[in-house]
Amino acid sequence: MTAMEFQQWKQNFIRDYLDETDDMEVLEKIKKYAKRIYPRKRTLALVSFTRRKR
Q1: How far apart are CA 34 and CA 21, in angstroms?
Q2: How far, in Å, CA of 36 to CA of 30, rounded?
Q3: Contact criterion met (CB below 8 Å) for 21 and 28
Q4: Cα distance between residue 8 and residue 2, in whole Å
Q5: Which of 11, 13, 19, 49 is least enclosed by beta carbons within 10 angstroms?
């Protein structure tokens, strides 16, 4: 690998790493805001169904 190829590889590696880090940070923000909008514990209305015997 020549010095120029190595430099290019290093730049691409760093760029990819930073992109991955940014994506993870964005994902954490999305999860945080989603928790505010959609709480985990949801209370469901209980509906009872009765069968009529014929």
Answers
A1: 20
A2: 10
A3: no
A4: 10
A5: 49
Q: Encoding tokens for residue 34?
A: 């989603």
Return the C-alpha torsion angle 19, 23, 28, 31, nearest 10.
170
Residue by residue, pLDDT tens for the chain (54 residues) are: 899 999 999 999 989 988 888 899 988 988 888 888 876 665 555 555 556 665
What is the residue whose two structure tokens read 């805001």?
33
The CA–CA distances, whole Å, from 16 to 19, 22, 30 equal 5, 10, 21
Structure tokens at 41: 């514990």
Rounded CA-CA distance 41/31 in Å is: 15
